[in-house]
Amino acid sequence: MVVKLPWAGDLGIHAATLERLRHDLGNPGDPLVKADVNSPYYSPWMLFLALIGKISGATTFQVLHLAALINLVLLVTGIRQFVRTLTTRRAAVPLAILCVTLLYGWELFTWSGFPGATSLALCIAYPSTFAMGTAFHLWAMLRTALARDWGLARYLALGALLAVVALSHQFTGVVTVFGLLAILLGARPWPGKAAWLRIGAAAALALAILLVWPYYSFFSLLSVGGLEAVHQPLYQHLVSRFGLLALGIVALALRFRRDRRDPLVLFFAFGALVYAVGGLTQHWSYGRVLPAVFISAQVALAVELAGEAGRRVRRILVPVTAAALLVGCWSQVGALNYVASMESVPVLGSAPTQHEWGGYQWITEHVKYGQVIMTKDYFALRQAPAYGPYTVESGYPDFFLKNEAQRAKDTRRFFAKSTSRAERLALLRKYHVRWVIQFRSDGGFAAGDPALKKVASGPDGEMLLKVV
């Protein structure tokens, strides 16, 4: 997946973010539309990648391949380091990797920041994967810090790293904090006064970094709206999508019997509580804490299977978990289609799959960096900015773009049948549009109108029209 880097989901917004930073590190503006506004996508991680691109001369997609490789290493080593702080049994690490990537349900469900195999295949280059891999390392380092009585400098480094995670992917930042709190509250022996002072200093540094980050106001995100509808699927079809996690809950129950302050149990409780509150209050965005529920249960199961549980329990858990992992393999085998044809992947029955998209590189021969495109096409809105152009309408929710709704309304007006030719020309001038991407059935100007000149056709029949 690192080599292939499948085109789907949010890859376009992250590529567009790199494009803007590569051209203007100081004031990149909105990643998707031509507007001088801040954006939460401008994180320390993306800034680091943009600097690599500027220094090396690598293209945006070459940098994303590098990001995918770094993220993969971070995630695998992070799981290893964290699990090794919980047990010395060698089998626990590979079991944890299997459980974290495969143990969900029999209905395919993908989401950025969720470490399932198919989600990772699509999101391997995303900031969410960077944040998740770094979170595992943070949890491992905090456990080590408490066990070995680290000094102030190392604790401050933890605080800085926490701020980087929170700025890079805010939802994963919340999950990371839950994990850190669970480790602190579950620590044995209880941390002494000196340790708590260092922890407080680290938290203060993290807060200070969040406050002074220049590319966007982190705490203004707490007041944004429009997040609920898009996250409602996180509360639907729970049994088929996440039913295999019941085995992890059994493992957590075993750990709870041995230790009422077990960190994994507390981690699970924090995530489950916030998730339940979101469901009861219909704040569906709270569902983004689900990785706290997943990871705690999956890691607990791996540790118990590796030998922490007694022999009698393992005699039952081992074969049942093996069967569950096989179900997980089947439900996620469609990810192999990104690097191999389905004919080469034997599948029992009709395995679920999520298709990748075709790229929009075919427009780059004509459309230059920074030029504006009018389109209502779902894929064009989400892919074209990855190659440098802007679109009139934002393809993704944009919390800092004040005229986001007006842009969407104007795009609908442009293609509506009832809109006059003069109104369409006025909209093109309003947004300094140089290009239109549309299908023949989309509407807009009549065929042969002198305002537009057809320049190219896309692989699916869409037209690239130049404003003349």
- Strand runs, count: 5
Question: Portion of residues in helices?
Answer: 40-55%
Poorly predicted runs: none
What is the average per-residue confidence, as pLDDT, rounded to a whole number?
Answer: 94
Q: Which class do the helix and strand fractions yield?
A: mainly alpha
The termini sit apart by 41 Å
Instruction: Give the count of structural domains.
Output: 2
Order of helices and strands, N to C?
HHHHHHHHHHHHHHHEHEHHEEE
Shape: globular
Strand neighbour order, sheet with most strands: 2-1-3-5-4
Helix segment tally: 18
Q: What Rg, in angstroms, do the CA atoms define? A: 24 Å
> Biggest sheet, in brief?
5 strands, mixed
Protein name: Glycosyltransferase RgtA/B/C/D-like domain-containing protein
Keywords: Membrane, Transmembrane, Transmembrane helix
Can you give keywords for this protein?
2 domains; about 55% helix; globular; about 475 residues; mainly alpha
Describe this structure as you would to a colleague.
With 468 residues, this protein is mostly helical. The chain is built from 18 helices and 5 strands. It folds into 2 domains: 11-344, no CATH class; 361-467, no CATH class. 54% of the residues lie in helices and 5% in strands. The chain has a 5-stranded mixed sheet with strand order 2-1-3-5-4, covered by helices on one side. A hairpin with a 5-residue loop joins strand 4 and strand 5 (463-467). Helix 3 packs across helix 4 (92-102), helix 7 packs parallel to helix 9 (193-212) and helix 13 packs antiparallel against helix 14 (290-308). It comes from Streptantibioticus rubrisoli. This is Glycosyltransferase RgtA/B/C/D-like domain-containing protein.
